[in-house]
Amino acid sequence: MSDLLSIEGLGISFGGLKAVNDVSFRVRPGEIVSVIGPNGAGKTTLFNMISGVYLPGAGRVMLDGADVTGMEPHLLARRGMSRTFQNLQIFQSMTVLENVITGYHLQEKGPVVADILGLPSSRRRARKAMAGARELLERVGLTRAAEREAGNLSYGSLKRLEIARALALDPKVLLLDEPAAGCNAVETEEIDHLIAEVAASGVAILLVEHDMKMVMRISNHIVVLDHGEKIAEGDPATVSQNPAVIAAYLGAENAHG
Ligand SMILES: Nc1ncnc2c1ncn2[C@@H]1O[C@H](COP(=O)(O)OP(=O)(O)OP(=O)(O)O)[C@@H](O)[C@H]1O
């Protein structure tokens, strides 16, 4: 199957530091690819380049065959790439349903004036967004929380809400930044299932996650970074036995301990 996301020789430096250097890999439809590596390895920086937050110093990001390098996040979203953030970007005082509806509005191309005048086209869009949002809440298991204020949700539910918001853009590629951070074992398992279901629907998933058990459970393919370089990639079993990967993690542990 063809690649939905292809990362080709991406790199960026901050001052003299090569935070990411010549990293390449690809993600196909329905595949779950994880980026792992010790603290400071360059995972977040790589994510930020892929999702248009940082302009890469070198290399290309190809989305469904088109070069989208350096494209702004909202334009990437319209082309089918959406992402979640490590620090949740939920509107705490809105309801759960309203939060998902705002996800739909990011995707809209319709004239704002139609909304201001309350034209039929705008009302139709609003109805469609509402129906779509309810469907998404069902998909992530938050139907019963639809009218609750988002700020009152448990952490695991907030993480699922954030995924629902990203799905409102109907992405072909979904980037998940630490989807299980701060979650307990039960919540992590629920997020596991959700991610697997989204992948099974054909979405290409790229994730950065510190929970190694989760990564090993759900990834089809793992890319390992250390000091900004890709030091290994492969399936979970292969990567977890790779001496360079073990050395990088042990090295990081010794440095911190
Ligand atoms: N905006 C920035 N300006 C300067 N240096 C940066 C910037 N962002 C990241 N760095 C540096 O680039 C390197 C990679 O950092 P990055 O946050 O991408 O690593 P990470 O693998 O995501 O780490 P963690 O697991 O701790 O989240 C680090 O040395 C970091 O200090």
TrEMBL record:
<dbReference type="InterPro" id="IPR051120">
    <property type="entry name" value="ABC_AA/LPS_Transport"/>
</dbReference>
<keyword id="KW-0813">Transport</keyword>
<keyword id="KW-0547">Nucleotide-binding</keyword>
<keyword id="KW-0067">ATP-binding</keyword>
<dbReference type="InterPro" id="IPR032823">
    <property type="entry name" value="BCA_ABC_TP_C"/>
</dbReference>
<dbReference type="Pfam" id="PF00005">
    <property type="entry name" value="ABC_tran"/>
</dbReference>
<dbReference type="GO" id="GO:0005524">
    <property type="term" value="F:ATP binding"/>
</dbReference>
<dbReference type="Pfam" id="PF12399">
    <property type="entry name" value="BCA_ABC_TP_C"/>
</dbReference>
<feature type="domain" description="ABC transporter">
    <location>
        <begin position="5"/>
        <end position="252"/>
    </location>
</feature>
<protein>
    <submittedName>
        <fullName>ABC transporter ATP-binding protein</fullName>
    </submittedName>
</protein>
<dbReference type="InterPro" id="IPR003593">
    <property type="entry name" value="AAA+_ATPase"/>
</dbReference>
<dbReference type="InterPro" id="IPR003439">
    <property type="entry name" value="ABC_transporter-like_ATP-bd"/>
</dbReference>
